[in-house]
From TrEMBL:
PROSITE patterns: PEPTIDASE_M14. InterPro entries: Peptidase_M14. Residues 1-11 have a biased composition (Pro residues). This is Peptidase M14 domain-containing protein. The active site is at 274 (proton donor/acceptor). GO terms for molecular function: metallocarboxypeptidase activity; zinc ion binding.
């Protein structure tokens, strides 16, 4: 049922602490957070402020500093935009899209909008190309008070002093073939449930907040991204990943009840992007460009609409 090598636990039973430890022991480092994320952030210090907001001590794997990037000309009289990437560490274009936006476009909003970027919320998972943290917890279901995911708790602590000032938050994600081949089966195994196969949409789509829908905002982002890469069509039943399509390329989730990152700010305009990097119609460069286009369209719309 599950493609996890030597899956821990027993079918039909949730993982124990020993099962989680066995799963963690199977995970290996495949790329470098220091090289891919910390070095590019360090290179931005002349054009942006780099603000540490914690560290993750995941011995014996290492200690991971958490860094955010923000506008040099921060002005407390201006509204705030939050850009997050790498909440799921394996979703590569979210991390590199956030970094590319900070490098190339942060200055575009000087004097109009304070911009805060957290480009890689889950660095341990980034290195292991995984959805979970080393505790086998999904950070993007853990943004709530008393969170048991240190990645989520650290980001919420960063955001807390700015609550009430956020105008827009865009959270950068991917939907990959490995969601269906690896991560959803792993979730079922972890929770002692039966894996039910689903589908992976071919193309870019957005997730709006069902408790605060902003259809014009989502539409503006879709229009911008459509110039870069293709938009995911609905499945024959009118859904994308099992959720009803409410507009071309847009579905809805309840952000706060589900503990999703996009619900942490209370901003008027919020969305989660979903890029499909495994499409034969998209390159890695297009995926990053799509994330950047989505961020720019989100911030531009929010500034214009207010």
């Amino acid at each position: 049922m599950s493609p996890i090598p030597n899956p821990p636990g027993r079918p039909g039973q949730p993982w124990t602490a020993d099962d989680r430890a066995a799963w963690r022991a199977q995970q290996t480092k495949k790329r470098s957070y220091a090289d891919d994320v910390l070095a590019p952030i360090d290179a931005l210090r002349e054009v942006a402020a780099v603000i540490p907001y914690g560290e993750l001590d995941y011995a014996p794997d290492g200690v991971y500093p958490l860094l955010s990037i923000r506008s040099h000309d921060w002005n407390d009289a201006l509204p705030v935009a939050l850009v997050t990437g790498g909440v799921h560490g394996y979703e590569t274009s979210g991390v590199h899209g956030a970094l590319a936006f900070a490098r190339d476009h942060l200055g575009d909003y000087a004097g109009r909008l304070n911009v805060l970027v957290a480009p890689c919320v889950s660095p341990w998972a980034y290195e292991r190309i995984h959805r979970w943290n080393p505790l086998a917890i999904d950070p993007n279901r853990s943004f709530r008070a008393g969170s048991d995911a240190p990645e989520s708790a650290a980001l919420m602590q960063l955001v807390a002093p700015l609550k009430g000032r956020f105008l827009v938050h865009i959270d950068l994600h991917e939907t990959t073939d490995s969601d269906e081949s690896e991560f959803r089966p792993a979730l079922a195994a972890r929770d002692g449930k039966v894996f039910e196969p689903g589908t992976i949409p071919d193309g870019f789509y957005l997730v709006d907040d069902s408790d605060n829908p902003q259809p014009d905002f989502q539409r503006a982002i879709i229009a911008a991204v459509a110039k870069v890469t293709h938009i995911a069509p609905a499945d024959p039943d009118g859904t994308i990943i099992g959720s009803p399509v409410v507009a071309p390329g847009v579905i809805e989730y309840a952000f706060v009840p589900l503990g999703l990152c996009a619900g942490i700010t209370g901003a008027k305009y919020t969305t989660t992007t979903e890029v499909y990097p495994d499409s034969p119609r998209a390159t890695p460069e297009q995926c990053i460009a799509a994330q950047v286009a989505a961020v720019r369209a989100a911030l531009d719309f929010a500034l214009q609409a207010g």
